Amino acid sequence: MSLMATSATRSSVFTFESTVHSSHVLRCLDEQRRRDTMCDVTVVVEGQSFRAHRAILASCSEYLMHRISSFSQHGAVVTLPKEVTVAGFEPLLKFAYTSKLLFEKHNVLEIRNSASILGFNDLDKACFDFLLPKFFSSSKSPAPVPRKTCCKKICKRRLSKGDGAIDSGDVLLFEKEVKPVADSPTQQEVTGSRVESQKAAGALTPSADGPNERFTVAIQCPKYRKFQLACGKETCVPEKSLNNPVITTVIKNDCERPANSPFISTAQSKGRAEEPWKTEPHDKKKGDGRGGEVDPKERQRKWNKKEKEMETEEDISPTDGVRVVPSGRSALPDDRSSGLMLHRCPMAEFGECPAITRTPGHKRPSMDGAGGQRESAAPASGRTHPKAEDQVEAEQNRPGHEVQTIQETGSNQWVKNSGERSAVEGDVSEHLAKQLGFSQHFQDPEAGRSSDGGGSAKVQDTSLEWLKYHNLSSTSTGCPFYQELDQSKCSWKGVEVSEGEGADQSGVSSPNSGDDGDSGTETEGDSESYTRERARQVQLPFSVEWIVDLNRNDFQQLLKQQVFTQEQLEFVHDMRRRSKNRLAAQRCRKRKLECINDLQCEINKLKTEREKLMMERSHLSQLRMKTCHSVSALCQKVCNEAKLQPDQLQAFAQYTSSDCPLSSLFPHIDSLVSQPDFLLKPHASLSACFGHLDMYTASEEAPSSSRTDTVKGDGQRSTLSAHSAHVHATKESF
DNA sequence: TGAAATTGTCATCAG
DNA sequence: CTCTGATGACAATTT
């Protein structure tokens, strides 16, 4: 559950979102269906009746929605076409009420066919496009499934064209976006695709989705794109949400991975594939001590080769960034089922979805290899998903069936349902293992794929040990994904370097490592590099990213508890130092840019204020001049026509408003006040100016010079004096 | 092809 | 003393 402040409004409006509500409702509905309560529709398939709720069916099946919508009364009966079989429909019905699809090889085609007819789009592409080729890849597939277009080519084209807008997350999302098949994406996918498409168009518009408002960043300048995105250009966003939209999206896709999981994140690895060749290990010491001795084109060529080789594997993924789950080795040699169950995990429950969980009450694998490791990994990621437990337990708690719920990136959960590992499972396991960076540990020695035997076991043991260690000492927050968000403010290219190095050296396959064929070329090209040579000697049982993520205490404990070789120590320290420094540099640059932006905003603000004041002054000046002209004309008229006496003139001057300076009444005063000696001898100047007045006053009163400086009893200067000062001040101010 | 921008890394300092 | 973060500087790389 989460509390989200709807930032659209200034007032503190919060939204309470329960992550268990939807599953609870679904479970209750399933219970009602089982008890045939409140069911309002009967579906007839091959003469067999299934009771259900119209709303549920209509929401899951386009076909049924159209059929059912015509009924208005309870007790409606829908007879499905004969192409839909019971074997195909029943799992779909359960899926509608449980989000989980249980199928086996013998009925997967029927299910798929029924799903296709009934319009179970959630399943169609996400599940069958992935599974069917695996099921029937060895033989000629009776139902060839169109493989999705590999959009990586498109992405690569975009990359090669220098479209920097595509980076890590873009690849993933763009692949979704350009899927030729009409997928039924999850909300997450929809959001990502929309964002990416908008982003590709050059600007992101505010979405009404609230939480997605972080994507409302208008990309204005292709340069500094990352920093613009990070800083929100002119509208800086809070620190915690400074991720650029791409990264954010990737995190959303990858947020299921526990923050502290030492497994190499496929999504992240793929996400960092914008210039993967760049991540090839550098020569640490090359004269000036900087890396980059490898020809970049050569790197790119190598990477393209790797990527091409990886495409086959990646094509089978139903969702990008999918993590295929190793089924592990079963203690049941005669289990033939090799059943798989697709479990759709609500996005809202990511925070509680463990990366790998074992359903309680189920048999533990006899072998301690992969099984033990996975078991140890479970607590590292947090709590076990209650819903998955309940439902799996309720439906799959059959003797001899071992159920493992393993989280998949694409918001699905693959629940392996027991059994000896079949070829499909093997593929799935291998795929997942590669995704996780632990392929070595899941390789089936019986298949002759295990290469180093004891070395692998050692690596595995260390991984287990460290996983246990980290489970116990982890200081991570309750929701590891939030931590992931925090720590993912910056990209992990450098980590990828280390990952690639570590993975390559340790024999652990990572999606980018290209551990076959290409390694020879890499060895030849980079064998002279001290760092690379050292890295080749390092065998790390976990990703460097995970090491970097550790806090100081955890890292110290890691060093104490784990026996590292000198090379490993150097490598770990070096990578940790460089990774942290890289992040620090990124933070530093981001702060710089923020500072520059702030200063620019301040400058703009001051400029605007100055313009405003200037206009106001100009306007007031015009008003003043206009008024003064009017007053001047009026006064002159009065003076000329009334023939005032000197004392009357003085009295008149006293009533002259300060709004109308003397310059208006007596134009000559401007020339007077501009004289150099005006400040020194204002009396004389004013006397000259007011000579015609003095003519009236000289006979009866003191000279005007004395009058101008006369201070009245109350301390106020005379009006004339004030006026002259005002004029002077005005002239100076202008 | 050159300039500008970006990014990783190192050295150094301060806490 | 060690570790970590910040930051200037440099170089490689990308745009």
Give a written overview of the molecule.
The protein contains 32 helices and ten strands. Helix content is 54%, strand content 6%. Strand 9 and strand 10 (412-417) form a beta hairpin. The strands form three sheets. A five-stranded antiparallel β-sheet has the order 6-7-10-9-8. The protein has a three-stranded mixed β-sheet with strand order 4-3-5. It has a two-stranded antiparallel sheet with strand order 1-2. With 734 residues, it is an alpha+beta fold. The relative contact order is 0.07. The radius of gyration is 39 Å and the shape is elongated.
Distance between the termini: 64 Å
**Which structural class matches the secondary elements?**
alpha+beta
Largest sheet entry: 5 strands, antiparallel
What is Rg?
39 Å
| Strand order of the biggest β-sheet | 6-7-10-9-8
What percentage of residues falls in helices of 4 or more residues? Answer: 40-55%
* Residue-averaged pLDDT: 50
Q: What's the total number of strands?
A: 10
**Tally the helices: what do you get?**
32
Q: What share of the residues does DSSP label as strand, in percent?
A: 5-15%
Shape annotation:
elongated
Poorly predicted regions: 1-12, 137-532, 677-734
Short description:
By secondary structure, the protein is an alpha+beta fold.
Topology record:
Layout: E1 2-5, E2 14-17, H1 21-35, E3 41-45, E4 48-52, H2 54-60, H3 62-68, E5 76-79, H4 86-98, E6 100-103, H5 105-118, H6 121-135, H7 152-160, H8 168-177, H9 187-201, H10 225-231, H11 245-254, H12 266-271, H13 296-315, E7 339-344, E8 356-358, H14 370-380, H15 386-396, E9 403-407, E10 412-417, H16 423-436, H17 439-442, H18 454-473, H19 480-487, H20 493-506, H21 518-526, H22 530-537, H23 544-549, H24 552-561, H25 566-642, H26 646-654, H27 662-665, H28 668-673, H29 682-689, H30 691-697, H31 704-708, H32 719-733
Parallel strand pairs: 3-5
Antiparallel strand pairs: 1-2, 3-4, 6-7, 7-10, 8-9, 9-10
Helix pairs in contact: 2-3, 4-5, 5-6, 8-9, 8-11, 9-11, 10-25, 14-18, 20-22, 26-30
The chain binds a DNA duplex (15 and 15 nucleotides) through helix 10, helix 20 and helix 25.
